[in-house]
Amino acid sequence: MSEPFAGFPVAALDFYDDLEVDNTKAFWEKHKQVYAESVRGPMTALCAALEPEFGAAKVFRPYRDVRFAKDKTPYKTHQGAFVRVGEATGWYVEVSPRGVRTGGGFYDASGPRLAAYREAVAHDRFGPELEGILGVLESSGFEVGGDRLRTTPRGYDADHPRIELLRHRSLTVGHPLGFEPVIHTPELLDLVRADWQALRPLVEWVAEHVRD
Question: Is the dihedral of CA 59, 62, 63, 65 positive or negative?
């Protein structure tokens, strides 16, 4: 059983600040106990506390896959966790040198799933539903992101009323909590829970419409 969530200690942010400067096995081996106690332990506890409402989260491994990457640095400079509700779809939380960030949506869609997303965006009812969801989130301080085409997707008119949404190849909405003092306290749990609750309409919209 994990310890109750008490926030991310300052040592977690310091660890990633230093790792960005010295991303080597020597540094990692010297500080892996700091990672275990100040980063992975709190993240595991946070996810355990959220699991009854949102489902089990995957706490990602700290090692980068460098097989096909130009950047061969071995370790990720952030710790993320993801609750999957569909293919590449769900809720996310992360701690990094930039503090804490929450998010949700879908981070990848290709082929049939991307076509299904665009069909839903173009739909007279489902498209405005998504616009409304995103509008509420943006007015609450969330930031809409994701990979987008610079051009018009094939089969759609450039003057489509939702052309900017149609350009998305992924759609993620994030809320940076940054370095607010609350990230070091147990109250962070309530903020992450509230953000994920606010993101539920988006996650459910994607889970319903972005399918093979």
Answer: positive
Note the pLDDT tens digit of each residue in 6-52: 999 999 999 999 999 999 999 999 999 999 999 999 999 999 999 99
CATH topology classification for 10-209: BirA Bifunctional Protein; domain 2 (3.30.930)
Q: Find the radius of gyration of the CA atoms of the chain.
A: 19
- Phi, then psi, of 168 in degrees rounded to 5: -70, 135
Could you tell me whether strands 143-145 and 171-178 are parallel, antiparallel, or unpaired per DSSP bridges? antiparallel
Per-residue CA distances from 10 to 31, 65, 99 (Å):
15, 27, 10
Q: What is the pLDDT of residues 55-75, one digit of tens each?
A: 999 999 999 998 888 899 999
Instruction: Select from 210, 205, 203 the least CA-distant residue to 114.
Output: 210
Place of tokens 């969530």: 5
Indicate the pTM of the whole model.
0.95
The answer for residues whose C-beta is within 8 angstroms of residue 206's C-beta and 6 or more apart is 86, 89, 105, 106, 117, 171
CA distance 171 to 132: 15
d(CA 199, CA 50): 14
